[in-house]
């Protein structure tokens, strides 16, 4: 090897980051938003009233399902909790649109369906961050998985390349052009490093069965069901018996489960073959209670209510995976830890963004030295604007569409997503007409405006505006509106910062404290 | 207890910073740190960080405590690096936070 180890790692870091940087930015930002999935979904359905979880919710839901979907092969009932106060039910219905599922939101008091606008809510950001959109689900997952592998390579090579990782641990030097960007990149990367490593690695673990299925396929030639039963202790499905039998009351089962889990809460109820003699009722423990995502569950016989299976902690190896899964999705996290996760997620987003910007600045300087700015440089800068400034704007547009599209519109939920991508598409076209800094400023400023006006729009088109939610004690909606204003402030600050920025003279590009030519490669990383 | 742990982590980071010439200069306007003080400060920094782990673990157990601690490290170090640049004196003053936080903790224990 002609070059040193560190130089070759710098090369690897640059290219690993560059090739997938834009996808990673989107994954990081929407993934961070996904920590607020229930809150976003709740905010996006202003028809839902504030309700408090009660002990009779399970019974109400089962009775409602018996009336609504008596012939469905399976029901899924999500019981409300402090974060997601809605009683949501899904059921399989042969012939339904999409994957054959239908869903409804129930009023916990009466069991009647609540008519809420059709929307994907926070589910959209959550799904987008691991399977994208418009491409097939599997394609999306493969793309994101490959990008995550590049991310892991970029993180490890970045650590190796960063020679002054301890000396520059807390260092931020503003107003020094590229040096400041590098400092910012390093701070976002190093100070949240445990999070970045954790989230990238565990993200890959979530898809390990998809990316590397060979071991399991070889050991379990009969199919995944045998593997799942052994690894996760899930009860094998029972076939339909064909003769009818009434379902036993669910409330005693819930109490039994809570007793067995030492006061742990039931989060989900899965009923298979309801009304059949072979029906089963599975009670799954709420995923907010343990770090590990391997759900503890109890399976009861439907007609008699006798316990069939108690899936506990599972095999240690499965439990390790459960821990990683749980750490990644962070559903165990209380408000404080969730806030910390969001902070680290934003640091990751900023890390990717500063990395992309650094690369573009560096390319432009090289181009300027050669005397002509080529297509590649323009493309880099163009995509940076469209991704980094465009995505937040598109997210704001998604919320606007949620408020403004007519409630009865056919395929309304899809159209919200179309508006999101159309806005993002416009952000991709916009820099063609507004070169350089102007494009950055305008997209950030419009994004800030779009976020700032959302709470105002709420006053005009919904009953759940800030004044109402604050006086009602609806903290989730009130907090969300305030969060939107926070996003507006952040984007506004960015727009202001870019607008005020005066490009440093070319000579101060690399500070004189780094005299050796060998180092300039690293300094410009 | 979690607030106390966070203030300990912050104070630990400040001590480590003061053991480094660049940050010593930001706070005290002089670059030279006497070698003995440097060693003392970095040992103190590490001790405070260890104490903050212990506080977190005693508050929330090993699993959750360590996850929380990692998050707290990020949430204290990023503001510190920004404060060092824009308000170095403030960065130093906030390092005294374990005192009121610890006092509040003592008073809240019945």
Record keyword descriptors for this entry:
heterodimer, A: 525 residues, alpha+beta, 3 domains, 7-stranded antiparallel sheet, 19 helices, disordered C terminus, B: 110 residues, mainly alpha, 85% helix, 0% strand, elongated
The poorly predicted ranges of chain A are 506-525
Beta-strand residue percentage of chain B: under 5%
Q: What's the overall geometry of chain B?
A: elongated
Largest sheet, strands/sense/barrel of chain B: none
Pair with the biggest interface: A-B, 25 and 24 residues
Mean pLDDT of chain A: 86
User: What is the average of the pLDDT values of chain B?
Assistant: 90
Spans of chain B of 5+ residues with little confidence (pLDDT < 50)? none
Structural class estimated from helices and strands of chain A = alpha+beta
Percent strand of chain A: 5-15%
For the biggest sheet of chain A, the summary is:
7 strands, antiparallel
How many β-strand stretches of chain A? 7
The sequence of SSEs of chain A as H and E is: HHHEEEHHHHHHHHEEEEHHHHHHHH
Count of separate structural domains of chain A: 3
Q: What kind of oligomer do you see?
A: heterodimer
